[in-house]
Amino acid sequence: MFAGGIFSFCGMFGMVFATDVLQLTIFIGVVMGFGQCLVFNSVISSISYIFGSEKFGLYLGISLCGISFGTMVFSIFTEVLIQSYGLHGAYLFLAGLMLNQCVAAVFIHYQWKKKQLHRSSSEIHLLEEQVKEVEVNLNGSSILRKLSSVTKFRELKAIPGMFIFIVVFAMFEGTYQARMPYIVPKAIDNGIDPMAAATGFSIFGASGIVGRLFQILVNAITNCNAMSIFFFALCLNCVSNLLLSLTAQYSWYILALIFDGVSYGLLLPYTIAIIKQLSGHRLLAVASGWGFTFIGVMSVIWGVLYGWFYYIFGSYQEVFLLCFVMECISIKLILISRPLRKMIQCRPTFRDTNFE
Q1: Structural domains in the chain?
Q2: Which residues, 6 or more positions from 200, have their beta carbon under 8 angstroms from its beta carbon?
Q3: In the structure, what pLDDT confidence band is assigned to residue 354 with cuts at 50, 70 and 90?
Q4: Is it the case that residue 147 has pLDDT exceeding 50?
Q5: Contacts of range 79-87, beta carbons closer than 8 Å, 24 or more positions apart
Q6: CA torsion angle 322 323 328 330 (round to 10)
Q7: Residues with Cβ < 8 Å from 247, sequence gap 6 or more?
Q8: Which of 13, 37, 146, 320 is the most exposed place for a label (fewest CB within 10 A)?
């Protein structure tokens, strides 16, 4: 996580001196993207490690509220920075904020060390056995076997529905991240004032907080199945993409962003919960790593494809229509996968703090 903060700082700081699209792509798309991937995956693993399985969903939801809060605040704050200090000054200010991730990494490492001191002898013995198992698998093995052992490919492949869900996760998240930069430009193209468009995007962040508070509430009082809410949120996100593609009025733009924020506020925490439910505590970090690797690949593909669509059609409407189609395919993948389809059931039982 500390290394991810440094990479994020370097990527944002490099934008101060960027003068063309290639440099922008390298600093933001490669350097900062790599750093953010390290940070996010480390945060998820740290939450699972520090708090364990008992209240994982609750603390995960609280932590992810920060993403929605940041989206709500920084969509307007960044516009104010640009108007006050110019584009390069805004990047310099944001680069400084990226270093706070390093400070957070130090605090998390302190909590990790603190928990290490309170481990029972059985937990320490289990960890030692796992380390020995990895060392045995790595010694004297071929490169492919070593790679398979480190990535836990065979173990994850044996879990019913795991890789299909990882593909679903990558499809909706990859298309989602690739289309985010087009939301405000589409509103401006439709004649909406830039500040009003940025304000609307802050409503997206506020709606994300609502979605995550709902997730925290559900997780605190019921054991409602995570896949049920994930499936509902994915359908709601499809509706938001359809509204964003078809509407040109500001009121419908706001409604679409509310749907978008609430659905994404539910999708991300429940995605991690489902991956943990399928893979267990021990394989969570590796399974999440597979998911974020596929997301990176999807983001590259769809980023290029969205740009090509805009170049061909000259509007952003087709970009959001393509997102709608891809998320419909994600829904279809869940429905045709028997293990995932069986998970779509909701039988709430109160006073249970687990997703499972």
Answers
A1: 54-85+153-343 (1.20.1250.20)
A2: 187, 192, 250, 253, 254, 257
A3: very low
A4: no
A5: 79/194, 79/195, 79/198
A6: 120
A7: 253, 256
A8: 146
